[in-house]
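Example is below:
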Amino acid sequence: MADTSEKLTDFAKRGQEAVSSAFDAWTDAVGSLTSFRPSAAEAQSLLDSSYGAAEKVLASQRDFAKSVLEAGVQVVETVGEQADKVSAKARTTAARKTTPTV
């Protein structure tokens, strides 16, 4: 379970870094707009770079969500396996107690 916690912490950190990076790119882009009047080509380039940054954030969020989902599935599988073992042991113990001795 500690391994899963470490993975989730790492995924959260990477997600925060991606959002922070995208925000920095956005603020840089907005800051650059206040200091000059872009030509049509520059405005198009700025638009493309803004959407490119948004695409990177979305891709990072998707990867993060998939990683969290994968980690969650692993936890559920591990818990299920442990529950199966305990249940099997309980059935065996119960069967021994109910079997008459001759």
